[in-house]
User: Fold these one by one.
Assistant:
Number 1:
Amino acid sequence: KQTNGETASSTSLDIAVVGAGIVGVMTALGLLHAGHTVTVYERANDYFEVGAAMAFTGVARECMQRLDPSVLEALHRVGEVNRHPMNRYWDGFNPATKDVAQSEQSLLFQQSARELDYMGCLRSIFLQEMAKALPDGTVKFGKSLESYSEEAAGVELRFADGSIAQADAVVACDGIHSKARQLLLGEDNPASRPSFTHKVAYRALIPIADAVNALGEDKANNQCAHLGPDAHALSFPASYWGLLGAAGLFHEVANWTLSNIFIFLHDPKPWPDPHKMTLEVEKSEMVPALSQWAPGMRELVERMPEKVFKWAIFDMAENPANTFAHGRVALVGDAAHASSPFHGAGACMGVEDALVLVSVLETALSDTSGLSKAQAVTAAFQAYSSVRLERSQWLVSSSRDMGEIYQWRYSATGSDPMKIKAEIETRSRKIWDYDVDQMLAEAKQDCEKRLKL
Ligand code: FAD
């Protein structure tokens, strides 16, 4: 053990968080709550999030509460639960009639929404709501991380504008195209870059009256998944909507007058540019893939604006990272394990990461055996990585399977609703029925073992 220099227990840490996305901001709040000094370095000139919806599991909300109650309070201020007691999965392909009574018979299966315990929100509003709890000056905008090096005194971060910063530790939350991941794993490591999942998403908002015409009152006014061959869709009424305009991101209260439509297609072709993952396209390009679908679904597409946003879904399933940490630098959230959205839990994994990270740092800093700060942080970050690797990477891989299951492309389930339901439930239980206390106990134990090495 190196006992010269500042010992771990002598002070709290000065931590640099890279990225002020959803996971970066909540991680920063958790670290501040634990007594650390935190500076967040964000590449963009302001908070940046899309005005799309996302949801958090009950487990993620429990982690938010423990991380810093202000995170959960922010979600409660802007979030909402599904208004229908069940989450319903419909056959989007059959029947070949638009008769609403018949189309109501196309229910494949349903699950209790209360049991699933998701709380949804508009991601841009949630980010801004959380950010209000950060002390002024915590976030430095316009700071794009280019490189870092570990020095005896700490980690030196270098940014694209030529500026330099120092920190005891770096927590990189810089998202799916993480620069920190490339630096930590090496540019040539295949895990440094995400891959195309061969799924694309089209997203649009339409007036709720149009959704009612296409789907009927019940389906249009509640969250629904519509399954079918090589495609699936989500539709749900919007209480808010957000837009990125010339003046920045703004929100409007929609009061359930709009319907959010996401259409996911299987796309066997390669994606042209991995750095440009969203495009504005003509909606006509998705029509051929849905030409045989049930009339209500086709009408939904007809009612979408001519120009829609298309998202390429990338993830790290093909090339998972073999570690989330090296030395005094840790990857958290999508930087560590970017996932496709089919479990609706990519960011939930980031919340769990943040809680483990804060807790292992607490364990390491309360160690009294005279370790240096660098040694303590290294041990904590290795414990974090070892506890989080398996679960978060399982999520990434299972989420890919879920995309195939929804699109009737998964051989074990095909288009059989009971098999699909059973498969979804088994996988989802792994996400929802999770023991946060046990996760933290394992992390503490792992960290203590490493501190004694
Ligand atoms: P990001 O949100 O990508 O934030 C990264 C931040 O880092 C950005 O602000 C960026 O500007 C900044 N940055 C990047 N590079 C640098 C740099 N070099 N220097 C400084 N700053 C930098 N998850 C759920 O849990 N529930 C859902 O319902 C859900 N739905 C989804 C739906 C879709 C369509 C998609 C695509 C994903 C969904 N997810 C969902 C996943 C979720 O969106 C991500 O897991 C989450 O946004 C990751 O947050 P993050 O903060 O790690 O990364």
Number 2:
Amino acid sequence: PPLFIQRYYLVAEVMKNHNVESVIDFGCAECRLAPFLKQVPTIQQVALVDIDRISLEMSRFRIKPMVYEFLEKRLKPLTVEIFCGSATDLDSRLMDFEAVSMIELIEHLYPDTLEAVRENVFGRLQPRLVVITTPNADFNQLFPGFKGFRHADHKFEWTKEQFQSWCDNTADTWGYEVNYTGVGEAPEGFTHLGFCSQAAVFQRKVGHSCKGEKSIGSECYQKIEESN
Ligand code: SAM
């Protein structure tokens, strides 16, 4: 499958392996991750969040149940909601979600926004699991005649080392353990470059939860759609 689909499989697989029941997908864009999360039997709550209202409005249909879902009922009920809002803000309705995914979001953020997102996710929301994916700049040399960034809206593309040092620092600061993986393998002889899309999986360390100290947000997101 194409790379973007491989990223959805990766995220769904991580959620499945960690028995996740509730997930927030920040920067959900066209809500394409939703059908993959639906395949994870433990998941009961999905919140899809993006600042681009038009993209969300046009993607409402993606969270509607498919015909086969009426024939083959899930064992556990599932609610999927689409919200318009920013990953820099914490909506009180999403405070207790267990996991966060951010697929190809961070490279679209200016440094101050990226920092605010990091503070919000790791410092305030403090989910037990976070999955982040971003392009691997080391891999770009494998694209013939490549110059600049993979996408015009990218504010940066990090090498493996840059990404891992940002993630290690994040993990140290907020009490997480981090492991690295990715999708899109390099051809033989170039595997040292790493994956085309690099990914980090953060797990909150036991005893490191500061849940009681979480600041309470308000209902700052706008709900666009909900489906059961
Ligand atoms: N995650 C999507 C996927 O895998 O299909 C792709 C993400 S797209 C490349 C980046 C998205 O981030 C855009 O839809 C953009 O509107 C969104 N975005 C940018 N800044 C944001 C913010 N502060 N909070 C939430 N979403 C944001």
